[in-house]
Amino acid sequence: MIENKACPYCRRSLIKAENQDNSRSVEHLIPNAVLTRRRKNDEGDFYACRKCNSKKSNIDYILGVLAMGQSSDNDLAADALIKAVEKDNGATKRFIDMVHTARPTNEGTVHAEIPINAQELIEYMHYLGKGQYFKLEHKLYNPRKQVMLVKFDNKLALSSLEGSYTGQHKTNPFQDLQQNSYTEVINNGECLIWAKNNKFLFVFHNYTAIRVKVLSKNKKNIAKVEKSETYLYRYFNYGR
Ligand SMILES: [Zn+2]
Description:
Layout: E1 24-27, E2 46-49, H1 50-69, H2 74-86, H3 92-101, E3 103-104, E4 110-111, H4 118-137, E5 146-153, H5 155-169, H6 173-179, E6 183-186, E7 191-196, E8 199-204, E9 208-216, H7 219-235
Antiparallel strand pairs: 1-2, 3-4, 5-9, 6-7, 7-8, 8-9
The structure holds zinc ion (ZN).
């Protein structure tokens, strides 16, 4: 557990008193919602303000269902989606909507629209990037001097990558990634975090990935970020 005094997400100072927006609360960067078992140790946990923590946790749950729902373990995938549809919480409608968009593809898989919009997704990827940056650098991400380039890959992209990688190297990319010395392995590989030189790759259940680069703020990098966000706004339209 890192005993930090400011929120790595919004930079505000944290207080010990409870029930305020800036009250400190324990943050697991990788949420239990994305794992099939709760983790036992608190290594890498830090404090975040209550406001950021609760905003992030809404999407933690959605990401968890999506990542498990794209798992190559069919039982886990079906179970996660059925539970999400049956569970009566604020996100139920999203998963019912997603089921309604599901269509079989020519490759024998099912395609469904991801029930999350670009704004939520970008915000979430920023949480992951800021948290990981803080864990490694022990300093706060500074939006006046830095920008964050974020990308999201789903099963379609990752399984095609897996195929070409295995064809070329005769090994599995996710197993190779687990062995890599820059990779942190959580719950036997349910989540992998590869981090090097302010570049991070988060892989959840093999087929959902988030890529983050923390870059210095300049014209060229601002343009890169804009281009990548425009792309996300084009493809993730849930609720808009
Ligand atoms: Zn905060």
